[in-house]
Amino acid sequence: MKRLLIAAGGGGDAITAALVHAALHGARTPALVLTYAWERLVVDPVPGPRGTADFTGLDRPAPRLTLVTPRTAPRAPAGSLLPRLAGALRPALGLLDPYEGVVGLARQIEEAARWCGADRVDLVDVGGDIVARGDEPTLRSPLGDALALAACAAAGLPTTVYVAGPGLDNEVPRAVLAPRLGAPAFALAPEDTDDVLPVFDWHPSEAGAMLVAAARGVRGVCGTRDAPAPVLLDDSSHQVHRLTGDEALRLSPLARALADCPGLEAAETVSHTVCGFSEIARERQRAAVLPAPPGPRPAGEAAAVLERYLAFERALRAEGLAYVTTRRITEELDLTPPEADALHRSLAAGSPTRRAAPLWRLAEV
Predict the structure, then answer these.
(1) Backbone angles phi, psi at 159, to 5 degrees
(2) Quick count: other Cβ atoms within 10 Å of Cβ 351?
(3) Mapping DSSP to helix (H, G, I), strand (E, B) and coil, where does residue 338 land?
(4) 326 pLDDT more than 80
(5) What's the number of CA atoms in the CB half-sphere (13 Å) around residue 53?
(6) Is the separation of the CB atoms in 117 and 1 below 8 Å?
(7) Which of 168, 303, 178, 302 is nearest to 237 (CA)?
(8) Helix H segments across 258-336?
(9) CB-CB contact of 34 with 122 (8 Å)
(10) What angle do CA 49, 54, 81 make, to 5 degrees?
């Protein structure tokens, strides 16, 4: 028998689901995490989520259940970090394919529950947009969460919703979420993060990285990529809130409106009606102007990269930031993967206190 969890929004939520599972049941307890292959354009340049047809090497233990393994690969031009995650996380990873809408997702969840021998579902979200109303001005990506919540309701399995690190995804502010979530159920401890910590050496999830950092005692203001404001990590940032599926559904107009939705295109239409936008349409717009990845650069550039970082660091410190995510460093300095790895090694070797894993501590100006 395996515990069945669902990573509500894809991306870093699969890591958070593994983290919450470890805190609740122990990392060695068998589990299956169902997750979307819906990742940032820096990972997958094709807008929207990927379905089963976008991968090779999926395992199919049941007709509607597909498992991602380290042997799985995305079909070009799509990209995905799920195969690498499958090799790094203890829980097995199953792919949620949203192209048949809530109806198809519910069938996938039902089949996964039968395969696991599970009689209930834990639905995990980092940040809290799973309980968004839809009209919050900073809301950016509610559709995946709402589809998962609606699908759990349609599947008819008892569902517990866990919201970890409210506000860490820099969408719905924590102060707005607090009345909806109530008191926290528990707080993540440093030892809960041990298994997932190495993942952030290469995975770009910023909300997940800040959640882990907060659980490990990091406190202060952190700068993230493409966010309207920095995030304050304090004693509440590693807390986890628990709701029933019915409670979460009452809080989410989008999830309620998606009931019986037959496909992803129809879900986009519902999102336009409820929220005034479709995040997939926004991804299409961004993908159309996405710059080409940086090409090879001449050898011997390490010193120049370090100088660029130090100037970047001084600017962020002057803004009052204390920490920065790996993703922000990599993207704002336009680093290739080898350049980013070399810079991180140089920073960690030159001043070990700069590393506040999985974040980077900014040196005093």
Answers:
(1) -125, 135
(2) 11
(3) helix
(4) yes
(5) 3
(6) yes
(7) 168
(8) 264-275, 279-288, 302-318, 326-332
(9) no
(10) 65
Relative to beta strand 92-96, strand 65-68 is antiparallel
Give start and end residues of each alpha helix (H) in 156-263: 174-181, 206-215, 245-251, 253-257
Average pLDDT value over all residues in the chain: 94
> Which among 24, 6, 33, 38 has a CA at the least distance from the CA of 124?
6
CA distances from 173 to 28, 127, 278, 299, 311 (A): 34, 9, 20, 44, 30
Q: What is the pLDDT of residue 302?
A: 80
Residue 303 has a pLDDT of 85
The Cα 253–Cα 256 span in angstroms is 5
In 57-117 the beta strands, taken as DSSP E runs, fall at: 59-62, 65-68, 73-74, 92-96
- In DSSP terms, which residues pair with 243 in a beta bridge? 161
CA 66 – CA 354 distance, rounded (Å): 41
Yes or no: say if 102 and 259 are a contact pair by the CB < 8 Å rule: yes
Average pLDDT of 32-55?
Answer: 96
Cα–Cα distance for residue pair 138/227, rounded to 1 Å: 9
The enclosing H or E element of 17 equals helix 13-25
The H or E element spanning position 76 is none
Backbone dihedral region for residue 182 (phi beyond 0: left; psi -120 to 50: alpha; all else: beta) = left
* Nearest 10 degrees: Cα torsion 101, 104, 108, 113: 90
What tokens appear for 290 in the block?
């996405």
For the segment 156-179, the average pLDDT, to the nearest whole number, is 96
Question: pLDDT, tens digit, for every residue of 210-251?
Answer: 999 999 999 999 999 877 789 999 999 999 999 999 999 999
| CA count, 13 A, side-chain hemisphere, 357 | 14
